[in-house]
Amino acid sequence: MTGRRRRDCRSEEGSIAAFTVLLCTALVALLGLVAEGGQVLADRETAMAEAEQAARTGAAQLSAGTLHLGGIVDGGAEPVHAAEYVMAADGHPGTARAAAGLVTATVTPFSVSTPLLSLVGIPSVTISAHASAEAVAG
């Protein structure tokens, strides 16, 4: 009977080690998701704010005199240059276009490295942003 009891105990040897490895992996993944996921969200919000500000700056370059009269005059290349300058000055260059009183700004996609999440197969996250602003009369 003693021999049988020892065999039963040995069958579970190492199960604590396997459980510990799985638990530690899950905790590292969770830590990476919280810490680096928060950083990715903050970077995405910053890129979106930059695109919105660039689009507003470009829309402000449209002819203010004609806006007061109820019309919109295409500002030529000036709204595009202004929007692209704002994005570059904020640290994330991008492209802009203007047509019919609408200025659209797009931040060039960039990567954010995620060292902790790379342990579970996510080495980086790509972020981009897109925003539009319309010149309104009134």
Q: What is this entry, summarized?
A:
By secondary structure, the protein is an alpha+beta fold.
Structural write-up:
There is one protein chain. This protein is an alpha+beta fold. The protein has one domain. It has 4 helices and 3 strands; from the N terminus they run H-H-H-H-E-E-E. A 3-stranded antiparallel β-sheet has the order 1-2-3. A hairpin with a 2-residue loop joins strand 1 and strand 2. Helix 2 runs antiparallel to helix 4. The longest helix is centred in the first third of the chain and has 46 residues. The radius of gyration is 27 Å and the shape is rod-shaped. The relative contact order is 0.18. The model has no long low-confidence stretch (mean pLDDT 84).
Helices and strands, with pairings:
Blueprint: H1 2-10, H2 15-60, H3 64-68, H4 78-89, E1 94-99, E2 102-113, E3 124-134
Antiparallel strand pairs: 1-2, 2-3
Summary keywords:
about 140 residues, alpha+beta, rod-shaped
Number of structural domains: 1
The largest pleated sheet is described as: 3 strands, antiparallel
What's the pLDDT, averaged over the residues?
A: 84
Q: Specify the oligomeric state.
A: single chain
